[in-house]
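Support request from a user on the community tier.

User writes: "When I paste my structure tokens into the form, the page sometimes reloads and wipes my input. The last time it worked, I copied everything first. Here is what I submitted, just in case something in the input itself triggers the reload:"
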């Protein structure tokens, strides 16, 4: 009973109640109980006054006596039910005759309680009435949301039951040039034939169906290619939503982004693809699709090689700026980082931001602009690459077993590569050439000594230095030593980042 009382007090805060009773003593006694649960409480001394109060305040629950001078409780209930059938009416009557009970059932009252009513029974009845009101309220919100989705969005919308179309909106019918769903089914026989094959897009294959894949990933955004009524290929973003409390039902929405000309990025002409990759407006338009679908993106940063990844929600944007809300740790990493990478299931490639315009730690937001797609980015690293402690490592480069005496340090290292910074380029060392690297890592126990033979993968020239990336393959015990060092170094960097 305590749980019911507490829940009734909480839910009753928003419910309006009217109590109609001509017996003053009984009325004051029941009102004393009702005031504990319902701040919005009204009362009346007879049926006529009760009806006037109902018309003025529109309560959701009415407790009323049946036998009253003038308008009876039955007449009051009939008049109110005629105007609003959703009102919960509870009869409190000293008459426990079957005729009265049947009459109350025919009117459609919520409960019929005999006087004198026991307090626990009355509380339980009120609790049930309030729960039913809240359930009905939530149901109407749900139905209004569906109505808004179907009638007030520009997207193509289809409702399905066990994968079979049962309802579509006007935009859907106009897109395919049909009058109703039956005509669509006769002409197209569902969506399987409509989702065309395209690299990186969702379409049915011999191994799996498109609907099954979408159902396994509710809320995920998929690229699809569909022919409209004019047989033109359109680029649509598809999203499937399951409907709460409606098992087997789902909603498909399609957002037409053909005007962004993004299909070429997936498998188009290389020159046009490269031009589109640098189109910031295309990124912004896709960001808007993400915002409209309330989807998340991922932010990727690196602290001395340590990967920092958190989800972010797009909360605001204009023609130039995007405002994302993310975790405090990610904001801290962004403040320290030079580049920020944004990924999304919707993006054909990662999005690179060279700097953040503003970081607000109180609101947990970051503002970006000047974004572009990049074919390769740091978030696609296959191996962990960490910066070693500069004060606790030495490295020596040998070319044809001749020691290089220039200044050398490790920029970062992984289990299969190392990037060195040197102040001069050794003679004859170019891409594809081999060299030997001797590394000593100082640790709290004993030094880790490695002698690695590697091949030059890339050389980057800067104003006063060169960066050389060497690739190598290690076997035990060297591979075990390096793995142990990287694992320990990762823990050091985690502690270091948390302390900032």
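"...and here is what came back when it finally went through:"
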């Amino acid at each position: 009973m305590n749980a019911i009382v507490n829940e009734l007090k909480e839910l009753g805060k928003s419910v309006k109640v009217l109590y109609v009773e001509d017996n003053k003593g009984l009325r004051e006694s029941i009102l004393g109980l009702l005031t504990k649960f319902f701040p919005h409480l009204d009362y009346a001394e007879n049926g006529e006054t009760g009806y006037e109060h109902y018309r003025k305040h529109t309560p959701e629950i009415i407790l009323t006596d049946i036998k009253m001078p003038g308008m009876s409780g039955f007449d009051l209930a009939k008049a109110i039910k005629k105007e609003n059938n959703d009102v919960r009416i509870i009869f409190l009557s000293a008459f426990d005759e079957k005729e009265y009970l049947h009459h109350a059932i025919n009117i459609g009252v919520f409960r019929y309680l005999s006087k004198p009513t026991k307090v626990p029974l009355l509380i339980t009845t009120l609790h049930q009435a309030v729960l039913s009101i809240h359930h009905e309220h939530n149901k109407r919100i749900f139905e209004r949301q569906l109505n808004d989705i179907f009638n007030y969005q520009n997207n193509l919308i289809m409702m399905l039951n066990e994968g079979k179309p049962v309802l579509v909106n006007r935009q859907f019918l106009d897109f395919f040039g049909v009058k109703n769903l039956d005509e669509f089914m006769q002409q197209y026989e569902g969506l399987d034939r409509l989702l065309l094959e395209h690299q990186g897009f969702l379409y049915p294959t011999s191994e799996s169906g498109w609907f099954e894949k979408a159902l396994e990933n509710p809320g995920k955004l998929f690229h699809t290619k569909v022919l409209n009524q004019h047989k033109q290929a359109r680029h649509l973003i598809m999203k499937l939503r399951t409907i709460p409390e409606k098992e087997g039902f789902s909603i498909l929405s399609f957002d037409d982004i053909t005007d962004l000309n993004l299909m070429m990025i997936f498998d188009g002409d290389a020159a046009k693809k490269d031009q589109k990759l640098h189109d910031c407006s295309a990124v912004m338009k896709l960001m808007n699709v993400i915002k409209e679908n309330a989807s998340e993106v991922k932010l990727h940063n690196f602290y001395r090689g340590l990967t920092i990844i958190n989800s972010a929600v797009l909360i605001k944007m204009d023609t130039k700026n995007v405002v994302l809300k993310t975790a405090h740790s990610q904001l801290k990493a962004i403040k320290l980082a030079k580049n920020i990478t944004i990924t999304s299931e919707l993006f054909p490639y990662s999005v690179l931001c060279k700097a953040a315009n503003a970081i607000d730690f109180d609101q947990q937001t970051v503002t970006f602009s000047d974004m572009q797609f990049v074919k390769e980015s740091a978030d696609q690293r296959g191996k962990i690459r960490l910066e070693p402690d500069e004060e606790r490592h030495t490295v020596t480069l040998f070319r044809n077993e001749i020691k290089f005496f220039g200044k050398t340090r490790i920029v970062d290292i992984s289990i299969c590569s190392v990037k060195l910074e040197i102040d001069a380029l050794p003679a004859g060392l170019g891409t594809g050439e081999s060299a030997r690297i001797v590394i000593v890592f100082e640790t709290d126990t004993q030094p880790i000594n490695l002698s690695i033979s590697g091949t030059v993968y890339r050389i980057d020239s800067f104003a006063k230095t060169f960066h050389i990336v060497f690739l190598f393959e290690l076997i035990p015990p060297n591979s075990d030593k390096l793995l142990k060092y990287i694992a320990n170094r990762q823990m050091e960097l985690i502690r270091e980042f948390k302390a900032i």
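Agent notes: The reload is a front-end session timeout and is unrelated to the input. The longest helix spans residues 119-151. The chain is about 35% helix and 30% strand. Escalated to web team.
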